[in-house]
Amino acid sequence: MKNAYAHMTECATEAARIARGVDAALPASTPTSCHGWDLRELINHWVLHTSHGLECRALRTPIPDELTARDFTADADWPAQYAAQLDKALAAWSDPAVWEGGIDTGHGSTPAPDIAGMLIMETVLHGWDVARATGQEFRVSGPAARYVLETVEGTAALYRQYEGFAGEVALSAGESELMRALALSGRDPRGAAAA
Questions:
Q1: Residue 57: which of 116, 123, 8 has the closest Cα?
Q2: DSSP string, 55-96
Q3: What is the pTM of this model?
Q4: For the chain, which end, N or C, has fewer CB atoms within 10 Å of the first or last residue's CB respectively?
Q5: What is the distance between the alpha carbons of residues 46 and 60, in angstroms, rounded to a whole number?
Q6: What's CA 12's distance to the chain center, in Å?
Q7: What are the extents of the domains in the chain?
């Protein structure tokens, strides 16, 4: 729990930094590297699942319907609200008891550390997508990148079943663990940003 929580905290901090760096003048329709999602749709998914969803999973409660339909980007202050919600989610996961047992996903119970890993992975992968679409660079430490890579390796087949990941992108030997995690999840970390 200790290492995973440290990675969760680091990745949430970086996600909040990326959110603050999104230029409010960018059109909501700006394309992204996520097939079928423009910038507004990507940010709404990212905010919903990596902050509100992160807290709800810790509390073992469903995400309220009013949040799933909400356009977070409609509020000019969404980056600050996202950062505040990330802090609430981190506070919920700071209790060691939250990491014990399972969490109901609607399709059965999944061990809490596995849920945490998938949410950390989502924070990083979609954080990178937002950064790429907005001219920023998503940065995490080597240990956090290794954790995300291991999570992607363990979940890639499942995510592909539900079209959550595209096919793996080939990379040159010697790429960083973050680049490998991105490529394994179907992202092209060396390709051109969406235009």
A1: 116
A2: HHHHHT-PPPHHHHT--GGGSTTHHHHHHHHHHHHHHHHTSG
A3: 0.94
A4: C
A5: 19
A6: 9
A7: 2-136
